[in-house]
Amino acid sequence: MDIAWFLVLSVFIFCIGVAGVLTRRNPLVILLCLELMLNAGNLALVAFSRMHGGASGQVFALIVMVIAACEVVIGLGIIVALYRRRLPIDVDELSELRG
Amino acid sequence: MSATSYGWLVLAFPVAGCLTVSLLWNRLPGRLPGWIASAAIFGAFLSSIGMLLKIQDRPEDARSLVDTAWTYAATANFKVGLTILVDPLAVFMCLVVSGVSFLIHVYSVAYMTGDRGSSRYFAYLNFFVFSMLLLVLAGNFVILIVGWAFVGAASYLLISFWYRRSTATAAGIKAFVINVIGDVGLVIAAFLLLDKTGSLDYQGVFAAADNVFRVNDGTLIAACLLILVGAFAKSAQLPLHTWLPDAMEGPTPVSALIHAATMVTAGVYLIARMHPLFEMAPTAADISAVIGTATLVFAASVAVVATDLKRVIAYSTISQIGYMVLGVSIAAYGPGMFHLMTHAFFKALLFMGAGSVIGAMSGTQSIDRMGGFRKAMPFTFITFTIGALALSGFPSTAGFFSKDEILGFAIARGGGYVVLAVFGYAAAFITAFYAFRMVFRVFYRNPVPEARELDHGHLAHHPPQNPATGEEEDTDVGFPGPEHVVAERSWPMKFAMTPLAVCAALAGLLQVPGLDDAINKFLEPTFADSRYASVNPGTGTEWSELGLGGLLAIAGIALAYAIYLRKRERRLEIRERFDGLHTFLVNKWYFDELYDALVTRPIAAMGRFGRNVIETDFVQGTIVGGATGAVRAGSSVARAIQTGYLRGYALVLLVGVAGLALYFLISSST
Q1: Residues B119 and B28: beta-carbon distance below 8 Å
Q2: Are B114 and B504 in contact (CB under 8 A)?
Q3: Is the torsion defined by CA of A83, A88, A93, A97 positive or negative?
Q4: Which of A20, B67, B122, B632 has its CA 20 to 30 A from that of B318?
Q5: What's the complex ipTM?
């Protein structure tokens, strides 16, 4: 099977993720979309690994999964904290960092 | 113990006293701080006597001892250390300073009773005496300048001792500023001498000066004139005298200390100490002699019309210091120092008497409101009159011999110095007049209510107020205490005044022409190198000059008697006839106004210009304003990027990464 298919699929998933991050306002959905972007990257890494016959791409993919897990932990933690403090669950309204 | 060990002890006692009193100020009850301070100065006096005995044991050419405690800086051929020089001049000064200071301390114990700040007072007083002793014992210019500046600082602290009195703090600031002018002159002089001679030790400078300088060398004259700036600022000579009359704002014993022992004589000492330089720069010495003469005439004339009792005595000090400056400038070192000593006795005595009278007046200082205290205060009357006689130069008193010796030396120098001596005699007449103007107006005539009250055994008491302005005061710390004291009822004051009265009456006998010559002989080793050592008026001439001085003194006293006792009603008539002169003198020859116009106002205008134009427009507006403006403009751009919208950040990030990726793809494909 040609590698191009895998890459095209990966690009589609990545674009869906980007679009989600850029357009959605609910942080939970944004986290989901981030996961999509990471996993699109994983798919591309694994596809390249398969093409070259080496294992390093798969190792990278594993590392990305670990990072994704960490990121979800932190992200969900922030969301729970927001919820507990009864702040709006909406990234556009959480704009205190405005200069 | 060697003489220099005693020298260190002389310095150690006042330091110890100052530290003890200042550290334990709130643990020591009542008069104890005063007694501790007095004991410390007495220790210094005893050590001075020890120094005297040790130094007299040595041969005449080996009476100049130097001792260094430690070295501050040492380079190839230059060394500065904590060095003291013990020689007859230093020993003489130590004896006068510590002896008179001790009596003033004892007097203060009684005088400052009841003042809430008396511990602070005695700590300052000890520090003052220490500074002066350091100054006279210094063995090099660095220590001299340290002592010199300490004296200025101590005088500031003591003049503005009653720190809630606005006039006192203003007077303290004035004294300090003028003293700093003198300090700067002295420091620059030391730099000049160091530059030319490569040394800061007295002996090194004097030894090198002979080889480095020609007579009347320009640099040497400049250095001497700068030294004179320092000396004149400390000794209140024209044109730097204006601080001394204002210094009367301090407590009366402080005035006695400043005038008699610890401060104003420093300039005279300095000129005497620097005599090898001044003798190589006769021009500078002559300028000094002329200024001394001008000062003594000026101050005597102002003293005639001053109405504040302490200010009359203050102007008499300026005048008497003028005699001393004249003396040491024309190489009459022995007579100059002799007059310094006798003046210390009678001036301290006069101030103590004035303090007692002011106590009886419950703080009032104007002689217009005094009178008739003779019966009520017999002790003060007698001692004050002895002081006034000595000040006038009445025959056989101390001032009689010392003042005339200076003038006799001036006549013996001949030439223009005779003119200076004539002015000196004229001022001596005025001196006798104003001295007895004080005596007659304070002690004779009809008793004022305060005197009558005291006669009935009761001390007058007025509500506390500022004697200069009449402002109301309280008696808490920062203002004078509630108690007033008179010498008649206080043994420490009597104890202090009695020896001074004896000395003022009899100290002149140390040096009677043709009989003995104790002071000159004692000081001879220090001044042996003087070029004018051979100038000697001769005993017969001296006695005739003494006769002239005595006649002038008696004439002055007689004139005061005529005007103030015999024909009192004519006093106002005389004043009216010389109205213009009177106004001129009352305004102290308009020196304060002159300085106000020449110095104070231009500097104040410059200050306002600096505040309004330089500070506000230039610094605040251009420099600070420009910098903050630039930062603010730059940061507003940076702030605009920080929108706070998460999705905005994500977009920027994405576009950035995409742009970078594109850039690398394109650049790697070509």
Answers
A1: yes
A2: no
A3: negative
A4: B122
A5: 0.81
Determine whether the interchain pair A91/B644 forms a contact, defined as Cβ–Cβ distance below 8 Å: no
The Cα–Cα gap between B145 and B323 comes to: 25
Residue B33 · residue B122 · CB < 8 Å: yes
Which pLDDT does position B422 carry in this prediction? 86
Contacts of B49 (CB under 8 A, 6+ apart): B95
Determine what percent of chain B falls in helix, strand and coil, rounding each to the nearest 5.
Answer: 75, 5, 20
Q: With contacts defined as CB-CB under 8 Å, which chain A residues touch B647?
A: 21-23, 25, 91-92
Nearest CA of chain B to the CA of A20: how many Å? 10
Instruction: Indicate if the alpha-carbon torsion angle B602, B608, B609, B611 is positive or negative.
Output: positive
Q: How far is A62 from chain B (nearest CA, A)?
A: 23
Q: At what angle do helices B265-273 and B141-159 cross, to 10 degrees?
A: 170
Strand partners, B606: none
Q: How far apart are CA B641 and CA B635, in angstroms?
A: 10
- Distance to chain B for A59, nearest Cα, Å: 23
Q: If we measure between CA atoms, which residue out of B245, B276, B253, B269 comes closest to residue B178? A: B245
The nearest alpha carbon in chain B to A15 belongs to B654
Is B627 a residue whose pLDDT tops 80? yes
**Per-residue pLDDT at A90 exceeds 70:** yes
Contact check, Cβ <8 Å, A98/B641: no
Whole-angstrom distance, CA of residue B6 vs CA of residue B12: 10
Query: For residue B439, what pLDDT band results from cuts at 50, 70 and 90?
Result: confident
User: Under an 8 Å CB criterion, which residues of B touch A?
Assistant: 638-647, 650-651, 654
Closest CB to B642: pick one of A30, A92, A98. A98
Contact in structure between B302 and B588 (CB atoms under 8 Å): yes
Q: For residue B573, what are its two tokens?
A: 């008539």
Looking up tokens 């400056």 gives B325
- Which chain A residue lies closest to B639 (C-alpha atoms)? A99
pLDDT at A99: 64
Instruction: Please enumerate in sequence order all residues whose Cβ is within 8 A of that of B540, keeping only pairs 6 or more positions apart, or say none.
Output: none
Predicted confidence band of residue B659 (pLDDT cuts 50, 70, 90): very high
Distance CA B310, CA B352 (A): 10
The amino acid that residue B148 corresponds to is W
Q: Does the structure show a pLDDT above 80 at B458?
A: no
The answer on pLDDT for A61 being more than 90 is yes
What's this model's pTM, rounded to 2 decimal places?
0.78
- Give the length of chain A: 99
Interfacial residues of A (vs B; Cβ cutoff 8 Å): 18, 21-23, 25, 30, 91-92, 94-99
Chain A: give the shortest CA distance to residue B170, in Å: 53
Q: Render B144-155 in DSSP notation, one character per residue.
A: HHHHHHHHHHHH
Mutate to test the interface with A, among B635, B643, B647, B651 (most CBs of A within 10 A): B647
User: How many CA atoms within 13 Å lie on the side-chain side of B404?
Assistant: 31
Q: Exposure string (b/e) for B315-349, b if CB count within 10 Å is 16 or more?
A: bbbbbbbbbbbbbbbbbbbbbbbbbbbbbbbbbbb
The two tokens of residue B92 are 């003489």
Cβ atoms < 10 Å from Cβ of A88: 11
Per-residue pLDDT, B311: 86
Q: Is the peptide bond before B239 cis (omega within 30 degrees of 0)?
A: yes
